[in-house]
Write a structure and sequence with these properties.
alpha+beta, Chorismate synthase, AroC fold, 4-stranded antiparallel sheet, about 20% strand, binds flavin mononucleotide
């Protein structure tokens, strides 16, 4: 079992996480994680907070001399902005009204603000928004970075790209997943992590225009798990199905309102004969990879089990709900009609959400790999995995 638990408020001292179940013997250093943290912070359309925070992880346990030792890995990411919020976010009791900020009482539609204050019986929305904020995704990306490192030793890649922003949709280049390294380079060097330069220009214009109007934009990103073996997940029990686990993890990311696998919603209007991916076989002796498909409408998962094709997940991120042009709301003390609180926010965070989704996907895949192949140590996990890959090819 691999599991993790995060803690920390957006303007608190730091974010922390305990990640348990990573086998011993995985080479790991802080730079492996910092690279991923930086990717989460990039992307055109991010707000001023990203100018303040330059996320760096500190590994506190579970790693010795650059190698995991099998014990829980605890990690910490400082909030640089905390120094400006020490009084408002103090853990100490205070009645000093100068120290206590004006309580936030105008809930923002689209946030946990109102349901959160009702549920936890709070009178200051800050008590809710500090934890519901997507700042928490920084530590989930740290977890994902460790899982991606583990998967890379099995030659499994997890990548993402922006498919649409607002009403503008990217066209995929012809090489797409046939030349995965070139495709990744193209995405990673783009301002919006979008593989279509012409579409990206229009997306940037749309973000600028939304920002000028005090508005925000959402979009769709795609996550791909490439070169993963068939046989992860299971059909035998609802909570072991890999598609269900991935959908839950991606849906849990702040702002995500829809998740689909492969053809997803587009399959509704097609007959079965055009949907299901026919099965072929080319022997490894003839430079084939065993069973394969010419289409991938299933998104790499059938019956809750990976089938050896790329796992493809599309997710919809709604437009950012903190608007410059505030929406109508109700003051939770006076019950008068007011405008929602205006707080510092991104205009569009779809590229960053894609990086977070890579992280939660890598976690689910690493967990499924450990479930199937065991592994107190990387040596055992890797040799079991590679032997199984050979068996599948020749079965
Ligand atoms: C990387 C990332 C950055 C985000 N940035 C903001 C932001 O600056 N302002 C904001 O209001 N929401 C932002 N969100 C979205 C909200 O956190 C999210 O919509 C809110 O917590 C409500 O959750 P729900 O949309 O899943 O219901 C961001 C989400 C992600 C994944």
């Amino acid at each position: 079992m691999i599991r993790y638990f995060t803690a920390g408020e957006s303007h608190g001292k730091c974010l922390t996480v305990i990640l348990e179940g990573i086998p011993s013997g995985l080479r790991l250093n802080e730079e492996d994680i910092n690279r991923e943290l930086k990717r989460r912070q990039n992307g055109y359309g991010r707000g001023k907070r990203m100018d303040i925070e330059k996320d760096r992880v500190e590994i506190l346990s579970g790693v010795r001399f650059g190698e995991t030792i099998g014990s829980p890995i605890s990690m910490m990411i400082e909030n640089k902005d905390w120094k400006n919020w020490k009084d408002e976010m103090s853990v100490k009791e205070t009645r000093d009204i100068k120290v206590m900020e004006r309580p936030l009482t105008h809930p923002r539609p689209g946030h946990a603000d109102l349901p959160g204050v009702l549920k936890f019986r709070r009178s200051d929305i800050r008590d809710i928004l500090e934890r519901s904020s997507a700042r928490e995704t920084a530590v989930r990306v740290a977890v994902g970075a460790v899982c991606k490192k583990l998967l890379s030793t099995l030659r499994v890649n997890v990548l993402s790209y922006v498919s649409s922003i607002g009403s503008i949709t990217a066209k995929l280049p012809r090489m797409y997943l046939n030349d995965i390294d070139r495709f990744i380079k193209k995405v990673e060097s783009a301002h919006l992590r979008c593989p279509d330069k012409a579409a990206e220009k229009l997306m940037i214009k749309a973000i600028n225009s939304a920002g000028r109007k005090g508005d925000t934009l959402g979009g769709v990103f795609t996550v791909v798990v490439n070169n993963v073996t068939a046989g992860l997940g299971s059909h035998v029990q609802w909570d072991l199905k890999l598609d269900g686990l991935l959908a839950r993890s991606v849906m849990s990311i702040q702002g995500i309102k829809g998740v689909e696998l492969g053809g997803g919603f587009s399959l509704a209007s097609k007959p079965g004969s055009l949907v299901h991916d026919e099965i072929f076989f080319k022997s490894p002796n003839k430079r084939g990879r065993g069973y394969y498909r010419r289409t991938n409408n299933a998104g790499g998962i059938e019956g809750g089990i990976s089938n050896g094709e790329n796992i493809i997940i599309n997710a919809v991120m709604k437009p950012i709900p903190s608007l410059g042009k505030a929406l109508r709301s109700v003051d939770i003390l006076s019950k008068k009609q007011v405008k929602a609180e205006v707080v510092r926010a991104d205009i569009c965070a779809v590229p960053a959400a894609g990086v977070v989704a890579e992280a939660v996907t890598a976690f689910e895949i690493a967990k499924a790999v450990k479930g199937k192949f065991g592994g107190d140590c990387m040596f055992g996990m890797k040799s079991n995995y590679l032997a199984y890959v050979e068996y599948v090819k020749n079965h």
